[in-house]
Structure formats: C-alpha cells, structure tokens
Amino acid sequence: MNRYSLRRASASSDPGYRHELYPYSGPDEFLEGTLGFIRDALDGGEAVVVAVPEDKTTLLRGELPDDPALRYVDTTAVAHHPGRLIGAWREWIDEHASRGRPVRGVGESAWGDARSRVEVEELRYHEWLLNKAFADGPAWWLLCPYDVAGESAALKQMARCHAELRTDGRTTPCADYDPQAPFDFAPLTRPCDPYEEFVYTRGDLAALREKIGACAEQLGLHGRRLRELHLAATEVASNSIRYGGGRGVLRTWGEDRRLVCEFRDAGYIADPLAGRSKPTSTQIGGRGLWLVHQLCDLVEIRSTPDTGTVIRLHTDLPG
C-alpha cells in the first residue's frame, strides 16, 4: 500500500490518474456538473475531497447531505499560491481518503478579476503540472470546474491541461489536450522598465541582499516580509553559484503591487515539479525550492537545457 492509502492503477482496467475539465457558466451549471460527479462517486463507494472557493462550498453544502466519505477542505492557505497546490492535494488526499477506497476530487482555483496575468498563467501551468505530479501515483479522479465567462481563448488554454472533458454529464477525451506542452504554454512576461540588474558570483551574496533591500525600500517593503525575501533570494542565488555555472544575474522591479526578483543562470532544473511538494524527513536535498515557495507570494520557474534557468520571486507590497 502506498502512502496515500489508495488503490493502484492497473494496466488493463484502472485509468490511473484522471484529470477532467468541466466548463460551466453560472451557479446552476456549476451545481449540475459537480453534483452528478460527487453523487456518482458516493454511490460507488468512493471518497470525495472538495477544494473549491468558499461560495462554491456553500452551494454544494446546500445540496448534499453530510457524509463521512465527503470532505470539504479549507483552501485559504494555498488559494493564492499555485506553487503550493500540488503538495496540498497530496496532503488532502492522504488526510481525508478512507483507507483502501478510491478517491475523487473537485478542485477549482479562484480565477477572479483580481488575479494578475502572471498569477493566471501560473495557475494554468499548475493545472498542466498536475498531470506529471500524479502520472505514476495512485489512481484518483480530479474534476476541475472552470467558469468560462465568455473567454474562449482562456478555455482552450485550460483544455490543453486536461485529458478529459465533461459536457452534458458525459466524459469524453479532450481534443485539445497537450501532454507535452512546452513553456510557451505559460510564457514569462517581459521585465518591467526600469529594472535594476546585478551580476553575482561567489562572495556576492551580501551585496545581492543589499541590492534587493534598496529596491524594497523604494517600494515600501520592510520588516518580516523583507527578511523572508532575503532568505529566499539567498537560497536561489546560492543554487545559481553552486549549480548554474558559478554566477547569475539578478534583476529587480516593481509590478502589480509586488516586488519581483528575477534570477538567471546557466543551470538546468530537470524536474519541473521541484519545490512543489513538502520534502520527506528522509529526503536528501530538494528542500531549498520548497522553502522558497513557502516564503514568497508567487514563484515562477522556467528551465531548459538550451536557455538555462529563470526563477522569479514575487513578494506582495504593503498597502
């Protein structure tokens, strides 16, 4: 039995991890699709983990009776942190699944108007990474409701992340699914002008923190949040020096009420899931990027063998 206490996928009949997109418009359509999915699961003896915004939780609670196999989880701590969501799903499944029972999940991120373009792209990237995160793991089925709100282009991008599509209560293969989506799926935006640039190497970490501190002071960032940013920046820059050719380039700027610190180096991070799950007590290495995700409000990581690695740390500004 694996650590999730779930059944394993078999090559013949068990589909393994299933990732299904449910486009809907308005509360009635949300309920129509999710209620059928949840009731089918409960009738079949499956456990269900529901991780949706608070208003959607209220809708579902009003329609569904209490059931020990149905768990609603509080997404407050990770709702605005895409890099923490995969680890959260692993913990939610582990915590709430009944032993030996197959599991379904209903997961919807808060895509509201307050989201910046950067946050939206990172949420879409997270949806695609879910397929890699659970490809070799336990068998479970995740339904992702998505309010289309007239955005056909955004819906097509979401479809690239999901192997299955739910329409009129039926599940069909998603024609737009791209199992090998490249990084142009979620491209990094251009740095905002003006930005500061600093080339660092061995012995320059103190100077690097001073550069970040000077930019933070101009933008009104100080105290605990600045100390946490310094810790995250030191971790990323140290990895640049250790694994990225001995040097890196720091850029800093303000954007969308955030301080952004970008690190570029010649290294390559082969695992796109690096830092997205809590390290185990026996794990050797891999803790640094996980810590960075906990310390910052948003983390973007893009890495290829040809272009090297770019890591952006976003910290919300006060006020």
Quick synopsis:
By secondary structure, the chain is an alpha/beta fold.
List its traits.
Heat Shock Protein 90; 8 helices; 12 strands; seven-stranded mixed sheet; disordered N terminus; 319 residues; alpha/beta; Rossmann fold
What does this structure look like?
Helix 6 (205-219) runs antiparallel to helix 7 and helix 7 runs antiparallel to helix 8. The protein is built from 8 helices and 12 strands. The protein has a 7-stranded mixed sheet, sandwiched between helices. It has a 5-stranded antiparallel sheet with strand order 8-9-10-12-11, covered by helices on one side. The chain is of the alpha/beta class and 319 residues long. 33% of the residues are buried. The protein folds into 2 domains: 18-185, P-loop containing nucleotide triphosphate hydrolases (Rossmann fold, 3-Layer(aba) Sandwich); 196-316, Heat Shock Protein 90, CATH 3.30.565. 34% of the residues lie in helices and 24% in strands. The chain has helices at 26-43, 54-61, 85-96, 117-133, 152-159, 205-219, 223-243, 287-295, and strands at 18-24, 47-51, 70-72, 103-107, 140-147, 164-167, 170-173, 196-201, 247-255, 258-265, 298-304, 308-316.
Our count of helices gives 8
- Point out poorly predicted stretches: 1-14
Content of β-strand? 15-25%
Largest pleated sheet? 7 strands, mixed
CATH class of the largest domain: Alpha Beta
CATH architecture assignment of the largest domain: 3-Layer(aba) Sandwich
Please give the number of β-strands. 12
Counted up, domains total 2
The CATH topology of the largest domain turns out to be Rossmann fold
Distance between the termini: 49 Å
H/E topology pattern: EHEHEHEHEHEEEHHEEHEE
Label the structural class.
alpha/beta
